[in-house]
Amino acid sequence: ITSCNDIVDYNDNWDDELTSYGPPSIRKVATPADTATALSSGALTQMIIIQGNNLTDVKTILFNDVEVDLSTIYATRYKITLPIPRILPEEVSNTLTVTTDKGTTNFPFEVTIPPLVVEGFYNEFVQSGDTAQIVGDYLDLYEITEELGTFNLNGVEAKVLDFTDKSFKVVIPEGTPDNSVFTMSSPRLDTPLSFKYREFGDQILNYEDLSSNGIWAGAEFVTDGTRPADPDLLIGKFTRFTGTYSAWAWTWIFGGGFNLENADIAANPQDYYVKFEVLTKRNKPINDFENISIQNIKWEPGKGVVSLNTYGEWKTIRLNATDVFKDDNAPTKASLAVGWNSFGISHQPGNEVSPEFSFCNFRFVKK
Predict the structure, then answer these.
(1) Which residue of 202, 255, 278, 300 is most buried, as measured by CB atoms within 10 A?
(2) Rounded to an integer, what distance in angstroms lies between the CA atom of residue 11 and that of residue 234?
(3) Are strands 25-30 and 47-53 parallel, antiparallel or unpaired?
(4) What does pTM read for this prediction?
(5) pLDDT tens track for 119-135
(6) DSSP assignment of 144-199
């Protein structure tokens, strides 16, 4: 009688790398896409890999003084995969700290802190009684929230709602006057931020009397809102640019000029914005190939996002006066002077296009 053994003996010493045998150490930080290249810094929410030894049984991980939610990590003996928390530190030490059951290790690592971005009112000229929107970025990181922020309109507490990291809404009471001031603050802001509501500034184009602008091109695009498919009026007549244009066709949307009476604008253009409102139809955004020039600046509203779409709503645009009237040969780096100044807006698409967008309320406003 003979017999055989068909049992396969597996390696009983297989290592699942889930056990540590000493205090933790960090060799480098990298990304999942490139584990060979060491990082010295990272951004909020960025996914990273901490490489080293004895990195299991994690008790805490800190970036500066911000603690990581351990439910977001995956740890083995030789690496920890995790996202950098989207929380601002109270104190910046530029240190990554990992604590396990067997000890603590520190590693130099900088988390880049995004600056607060607050552009102001999406549309500075909404009607009183309506709801205005404040737009920016990282608002929640800087505690600009309904619970932690303070919001006032002309010194009176304002009603705010619909908060996200990029915007929130402000109810503008009926009868709120022009040039009203909206102010907001939070525990993370050293000084409050304020924005003017319906600030007319120094008007550039007088749509009610274009002869004062010496208009020589673009009058056919000016409307009072009564033409078919015109958008709602914002403050009066406006330019509505429409039609079909072949690739590289040059069209003057507006050609003319204006009399500048404010000597401070001419002397200190760096202290001023050129502001205006723009509106696009939902199905006809301004594409990045449309090449719109406003006086001396090539305005590229779709740059980085392919197109600008205001979805049928008026949107306030803010440009530096020294960019719109750029002149490197002038002492002020701008072509502005007291008296007559030329002003033009042109359109030259790189592809055939049938645009439909509107402009109004061109003005100088002090920063």
Answers:
(1) 278
(2) 77
(3) antiparallel
(4) 0.87
(5) 999 999 999 999 999 99
(6) -STTT-EEEETTEEPPEE---SSEEEEE--TTPPTTEEEEEE-TT-SS-EEEEES-
